[in-house]
Amino acid sequence: MVVGLIVWVLVATWHSGTPQAPKAGASEPTTVNFNAAVRTKRGALYCPLSAALDEREGYGLKAAMNAHLEIIDHEKDVERLGCEELRAGLPVFLSTDARRRAQRWQAEGKCGMVDDNDGFIFSCDLENDPQGLAPPPSSVDSGSSSRESAPQNGFLNGSIP
User: Fold this and answer.
1) 3-state helix, strand, coil in the chain (%, to 5)
2) CA distance 56 to 21
3) pLDDT (tens digit per residue) in 79-95
4) Cβ atoms of 122 and 44 closer than 8 Å
5) For 13, left (φ over 0), alpha (ψ -120 to 50), or beta?
6) Whole-model pTM?
């Protein structure tokens, strides 16, 4: 039994280091160009920064991440935290700093919070917008956010449904 376990570990170790050919029909992970126009994917989670900074038990950034991944009571937890699930296709306007953070998360193979002065969205909830509806960088980077022209938040420029 011990010999069988050792052989299994050796085979598993060797196999994990062997490059695998892509399976037929399998797609490569999509790389997002955060310097181009981006939009929300279906079910993108947007939360106000107050939700991330809430220090109460069961609230805060960790609770928002858990609610985003949860299957049971998903909608209830998202609402309890003061967050919203967005429909697909909403243009998202990222500041230069937010684009850099999103690119860093993607380079590390992670999904991370991308924030502005009003709220946050997860980098993996974004995709490139083939229609290219992003504003010129000067309108997003002109200060704290695009809040002056967007009563709702800087990311979506007031376009939350």
Assistant:
1) 35, 15, 50
2) 47
3) 999 999 999 999 988 88
4) yes
5) alpha
6) 0.66
